[in-house]
Design a protein that fits this description.
two-stranded antiparallel ribbon, Zn_ribbon_dom_put, 32% helix, 82 residues, Zinc ribbon domain-containing protein, alpha+beta
């Protein structure tokens, strides 16, 4: 399974993938991070990405502290944040 190399979202079907500038599907980034061939929020910092992903982890029953730690560790390995 591919995951977005910006936010870590699993990309399980064609609708989950972002779009390149030429309209083709991005194999690297999801539809939320890369909708039209550029990052949705190009100036977003790593810390802002961690905070914007936290509600999804909390919704799954993970505490904010654990979610922040997990996201910091996981997102730091992704292409956008290396």
């Amino acid at each position: 399974m591919k995951i977005c190399q910006s936010c870590g979202m699993p990309m399980m079907n064609a609708e989950d993938f972002g779009n390149n500038k030429d309209g083709s599907k991005s194999e690297t980034y999801c539809k939320y991070c890369f909708p039209k061939g550029v990052f949705n929020n190009p100036n977003e910092t790593f810390e802002e990405m961690v905070e914007s992903c936290m509600p999804f982890e909390v919704q799954r029953g993970v505490s904010e502290e654990v979610a922040r730690e997990k996201l910091t560790q996981t997102l730091s390995t992704l292409k956008r944040w290396r």
